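Lecture notes, unit on protein representations.

Consider one protein chain, 329 amino acids long.
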Amino acid sequence: MHKFCCIIFSFNRAMQLDLTLRSLDGNLLNQGLCYYVVYDCSKSHEESYHILMEEWKEKGIIFKRCDRRYRSLAELSPLLFHSGNLYRYLKNKAMRTKFDNFKDLVEESIRESEAQFTFFSTDDQYVFQPTYIPEEALKRIQENPENVSFRMGMTDQLTNERRLSELMKVIRIPYNENGNKGTLLEWDARDKNATKLWEYSFNVDFQVFDSAMLLRFLSPVLYHIPTTLEWAGLRVARKTNRFRKMLGTSEKTVIGMQLNLAQTLVNNKAASFSLDTLCDLYLQRYRLVIKKEQINSAEWLFMPATLYFTHYDYPDKIFEFNEVCTKTL
């Protein structure tokens, strides 16, 4: 049995993290999964994370909090002249002023897990139906770890600007393993006809790597939050020609939840549900739920008009966002 390490990044979003964990725990069919959560939070959100840790302690999830001890130029100097780090360090003010132990915690988690495969997730991902990582994909990663990875959520069902270009060369490989049937997709991220998501060879949302290879790849790279991890990782992967052979499936099972933004480096589109309001609701024992009819599996992201919740005291009842906020006020 293969062992997987899932490292989830979280900031001030305990309620959304809880939903991501529940969706993974309930829908990932592969066995041998261990979780690490690398997180930070404002003081007003600390209690929500304490509740979350208590809620999930029986699952053996390991939480690692960033220390906010910002590293000096002297401490980072051994890495500055590797892999374009100096350029990224000088360009990014936040990296220069707020570089704590995030990188150390990420790579420490990969080593500690002793897992064969590792994938990252942010706390705004939702696995909305049973998801299987094919053995055929894992075999191909093991045979060529420098070049091959598997990304959950990459599917030919996507539409609009994220759709699979008809001009791209895509190999379709049927599989039938352990009662799980489907089609594996294989493409080259450097295909001249690849667009949008299809040309990204490094991502922090559900891209499965060989753990040893990932650790060697990340060790010389400077990054300080998930955004710069993805930014730097993608550029280094392209420069060194790594992970260009991508694998996905024809089944769409994962979607991004754009409820709000927890970072400001990249101005992604998102709904505007307050982090503080969701924290308050979580402290009152509400839990976020997603209704099936809210999800369009042909879309990459999910930006809801409203939110729904259950409550620990009323697990079978569904509450709507405005109703809950009115009661809270």
